[in-house]
Amino acid sequence: MPRIVTLIASATEIVCALGFENDIVGRSHECDFPSSIRDRPVCTEPKFDVQGSSAEIDRRVKDTVKHGLSVYRVDAEKLRELRPDIIVTQMQCEVCAVSERDVEQAVCNWLDSKPKIVTLSPDRLEDVWDNIRTVANALDVPSRGDEVIQRLNERIEIVADKTRSLADRPTVACIEWIEPLMAAGNWVPELVELAGGTNLFGQAGKHAPWMTWEQLQMADPDMIVLMPCGFDIERTKAEMAWLTSRAGWDNLKAARTRRVFITDGNQYFNRPGPRLVDSLEILAELFHPATFSPQHHHAWVRFA
């Protein structure tokens, strides 16, 4: 059986969905689902303190990148000790996780063996399915990859079937970072449309764009859904003053009608793996509560 190291949380979830959880011998510091994976050795760490406000983290990231440095550190000795046959990493976002370049630098001096590096690069939903196929092929189980994708698409179609005929499609602003403001991009606009909403910011297949408070005010969305990258619900709650203290917050339609929602962006919307379908179901519950019974109470709260 292959010895697998996964260096991005979504890859860990893909490998587990394909039935290879027991073959994972190492993981990144962010790989925490399923919870049974947390006993595997950690092979990465951030180069700066990830605690603090979103504004502080933004400054640390930009300062690191400005100097041409990687945001993360790979433990090359630990990696070699684990003797992986396959390392799964990504090249979609160097701020989100260890990059292909980081991994190549870590293994470049290995003379006795060279692990196969599988690099994922998802920008939209179809890319996520392609990534599942890529990992399945690397593990020599292509048919298992097709089965996982089929099950995920069946769940998507259940949601899409219900939303196609709905006349009410609320306008939605999905927020991926609070200070400074950033809208959600990549696969999130697709999820919004499939869930029966009208996405206002960010484009499918393109990285999350920066936005201004004035743009949010001008759009005046029916709903605001917060999904900060790497933040759970409680951490996002602690950041809400950045929004609520701004002049005009109370006049926003979403605030007046109590249609501001905080989600667990870390576990769901920011991980391009199987649980993006859970993310779709979460949005459907928020947009159309009369049509979709709540199944994901643990993953979102209404902001008072």
**Number of domains in the coordinates?**
2
What is the chain-wise order of helices and strands? EHEEHEHEHEHHEEHEHEHHHEHE
Q: What structural category arises from helix and sheet content?
A: alpha/beta
**Largest sheet report:** 6 strands, mixed
Cα distance, first to last residue? 51 Å
CATH topology of the largest domain, which one? Rossmann fold
Number of strands: 12
General form: globular
Question: Uncertain runs with pLDDT below 50, 5 residues or more?
Answer: none
Fraction of residues in helix: 25-40%
Average of the residue pLDDT scores: 91
The CATH level-2 architecture of the largest domain is identified as 3-Layer(aba) Sandwich
Textual characterization of the structure:
This protein has helices at residues 9-17, 54-66, 76-82, 100-107, 125-138, 142-163, 188-194, 213-219, 233-237, 241-244, 253-256, 276-287, and strands spanning 4-6, 24-27, 44-46, 72-74, 86-90, 116-120, 171-177, 182-183, 198-199, 223-226, 260-263, 300-302. It folds into 2 domains: 4-121, Nitrogenase molybdenum iron protein domain (Rossmann fold, 3-Layer(aba) Sandwich), CATH 3.40.50.1980; 165-302, 3-Layer(aba) Sandwich (Rossmann fold), CATH 3.40.50. The protein is α/β, with parallel strands linked by helices. The strands form 3 sheets. Strands 7, 8, 9, 10, 11 and 12 form a 6-stranded mixed beta sheet that branches. Helices cover 37% and strands 15% of the residues. The protein is globular and about 65 Å long.
